[in-house]
Amino acid sequence: MKNNRLTKVFFIMVSTLFLLVGCSESVKSSIDAALVSTVKEGSLYEYPDKTVGKAFDDFFVDPKWEYFLSTEDEHVVEFNGVAEYYGEDAMITIQFIIDEVTEEFEIYWFGVDDVEESDYVLFDLLDTVYYE
Length: 132
Prior knowledge:
single chain; 132 residues; alpha+beta; 3 helices; 45% helix; 31% strand; Lipoprotein; signal
């Protein structure tokens, strides 16, 4: 009888642990989604008439958005999508840093096929994304 009670207590503890882990993952997922939405539903100062999400999702092939916490504890939303670059398909990566308090964001890193590119190339790309 005592062994049966210990088994029940153990089962309840393990079940509670799985529930807590599941809930924390769910909370993390909703925070991640909220930070991605902050960028997608926001706009860049230079292009205030169209949201970042609308512009990027319409222009790039296979657009993907992901949130992560950087090694410097900064909130980063990373965009990846395919676009033509000098006549070839290339993977474009743009990382945005978000201020959680003000919900403002800025472009932190830009690369083509995992190679960092200059601001000049970035601005040329953004003009193409927003105006063509």
